[in-house]
């Protein structure tokens, strides 16, 4: 018969402990302030947006902010409406794109890359990602 496996059994036998997933912090405090002003988000809406962008679930956000799950969904729905997106990932990408445009303003008519990525060609030259794009 198949017995349920304890998640910590293998980890404990190696001497380690299961720490769970770590939160990812993509934007700094000044970036969040900019986003809050740009989209006119309330302090609670920006809190929910930050936690969503860190990968927390509705339940985890509700527990952390000491509010109901339905309230989290309401704040998120308000964020979607104000930012004009439909999903969490669209919201995150919009935030990153907004902040990137502030950090590296446009110097011509092309859109800036979301992330400053470089590409190593076979002759070991570094080429900025934007130069690899075709002209619009």
What do you see in this structure?
With 136 residues, the chain is mainly alpha-helical. The protein has a domain of 83 residues: Arc Repressor Mutant, subunit A. It has seven helices and two strands; from the N terminus they run H-H-H-H-H-H-E-E-H. Strands 1-2 form a two-stranded antiparallel sheet. Strand 1 and strand 2 form a beta hairpin.
Layout of helices and strands:
Blueprint: H1 7-13, H2 29-39, H3 43-53, H4 58-65, H5 69-83, H6 88-103, E1 118-120, E2 126-128, H7 129-132
Antiparallel strand pairs: 1-2
Helix pairs in contact: 3-5, 4-5
Summarize the structure.
With 136 residues, the protein is mainly α.
Any descriptors?
single chain; 136 residues; mainly alpha; Arc Repressor Mutant, subunit A; disordered N terminus
Termini separation comes to 62 Å
Order of neighbouring strands in the sheet with most strands: 1-2
CATH architecture of the domain at 23-105: Orthogonal Bundle
The low-confidence parts are 1-14, 112-136
Described by its quaternary structure, the protein is single chain
Morphology: globular
Count of DSSP helices? 7
Give the CATH class of the domain at 23-105.
Mainly Alpha
Q: What string, H for helix and E for strand, traces the elements in order?
A: HHHHHHEEH
């Amino acid at each position: 018969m198949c017995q349920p496996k304890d998640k910590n059994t293998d980890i404990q036998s190696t001497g380690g402990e299961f720490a769970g997933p770590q939160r990812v912090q993509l934007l700094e405090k000044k970036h969040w302030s900019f986003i809050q002003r740009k989209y006119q988000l309330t302090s609670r809406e920006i809190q929910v947006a930050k936690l969503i962008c860190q990968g927390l679930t509705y339940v985890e956000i509700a527990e952390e902010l000491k509010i109901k799950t339905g309230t989290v969904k309401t704040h998120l729905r308000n964020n979607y409406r104000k930012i004009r997106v439909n999903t969490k990932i669209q919201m995150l990408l919009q935030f990153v794109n907004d902040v990137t445009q502030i950090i590296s303003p446009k110097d011509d008519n092309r859109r800036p890359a979301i992330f400053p990525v470089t590409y190593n060609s076979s002759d070991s030259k570094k080429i900025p990602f934007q130069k690899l794009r075709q002209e619009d």
